Give the backbone structure.
Amino acid sequence: MPRGPRKVLLCWSSGKDSAWSLHVLRQRSEVDVVGLLTTVNETHQRVAMHAVRRQLLAEQAAAVNLPLTEVPIAIGCTNDQYDEAMGRALDGAKADGVEQVAFGDLYLEDIRRYREDRMRGTGIEPIFPLWGEPTADLIEQMIDGGLRARVTCVDPKQMPEALCGAEIDRAFLAALPTGVDPCGENGEFHSFAFAGPMFRNEVPLHVGETVTRDGFVFTDLVPLDPND
């Protein structure tokens, strides 16, 4: 008797690669994405590194119609503390029947090995739905496919800080310096996806203040009441 689709939990950074991974996975009949998993800085109440407010994260999860599991992470937590927090979340996922965890990584072999090492022995298989896609082609697919996202964090050592807060479109791509990965895979920038084929509705927001902190530039995206 044929088995049903495998339950998948998607590691969700709130950015464009996570959102596109969801879109790709939803087109595969052999898997069923049943939830999102996100690490949240418990001091600042924001998505780790992307610095997205928890309220926007919650609205985003509602817009893609999936339950969200938040993993609280303390500032300066050790690798062991991080692994322990993620381990508890994965234990809960396995108890709920999750068989695979999906990651939006694109080509960094060391990151993939790290994830595979941490997943070993959990009974849950890591999968990488976007792995090996040429990033110049991939970002074009995202834009052509209707995905909309804004930059929330920029590494000013790699690209102009003025691009923080920008929408990721072809004008943004044209403004990237030579050598910057168009998907930001080397940490050049991070993003927040707010509309696209994976969403039931656009996540309403407006662009807030831009600040420099710990060597990075962050633009605050502020939830917007759709009735305003």
In short: Residues 79-95 form the longest helix (17 residues). The chain has one domain: 6-223. The longest strand covers residues 31-41. The CA atoms of residues 116 and 126 lie 6 Å apart.
